[in-house]
Write the structure tokens for this entry.
Amino acid sequence: MSEIRVAVVGAGILGRRHARAFHEIEGARLVAVADPSLEKATAAAEPAGARAFEDLGRLLEEVECDAVAVATPDHLHAAPVLAALAAEKHVLVEKPLATTLAEARAMVAEAERRGRVLQVNYSQRGVPEYAWMKERIDAGAIGRPALIQSSKQDTIHVPTRMIQWAAATSPIFFMSSHDIDLVTWFVGGRAWRVTAVERRGALEALGIAAADGVDALVEYDTGAVASFHSSWILPNSYPSVTVDRMVVVGDAGMLHFESRGRQVECYGASGGMSITFTGPQTATEVDGRLEGAFRRSLLAFLDAVRGGPEPATSGARTLHVVEIQEAILESAARAAAVEIG
């Protein structure tokens, strides 16, 4: 299969990025874009000379494609993923895989039944900073990960203006999906118990039935304990829309990362070092095309479609992320610890 014909579902921020990236990648061809807004679908499809549709059903009937990239809102992944798999297409889906464990399991089962690739776009594994942290952990530079802190914060612009479906998701899906995947990857184990709390009030006062933020404590079978904070009510006067922080404390050292400045520090018994990263990160435009971790994730998907190895972030391999997320929301709702079976 020399050229992979790809259709994209969703023409929002990430859908447009998928459409552009597949158009730019040699060996792939964007053939169609579907979105409830035909105007948005057309705008995303036109640069590649692709067709535009208002729904995936018609697209699958009228266009020959090998793969479908799903970039719909968080809570609307299941229907297009299952429809594409039923049509014998390979699927790349944006994070999170789903917002319910039942939907996630159904997608994984259908991909296995059809013998098709199902990859979740956990592209942050390919960000140079995080990849370097994983290398340091695997090399034993900090010993075994023991205590991890993940913090992701957005300005209130995101749930009030950037997306119109904040009430249908949660910060734990919209913001923490990547970090839960990263930490689980760093730790190399499975979560077994979750304790979480959810704070509401600021967004509800604006008529948006969404949590202001979530704090969760996740215990892994390796003995590691990770805390995840995600909130999206920072004032719009904050100098960036998003701020990330990740600290991994091992039993013999620590790693510290701040997104503002792209600096990673590593300290062990014999000393420390600090590295500032430059160049493409997630989706950086270089010489007129997108470079970085997002593109590399798409390349891994295309390789799998051609018969390469199962992606590291396949639906089956990252189903546990949805298990953790569902346990977090259950714990917050019950005000009690939840064990993952």
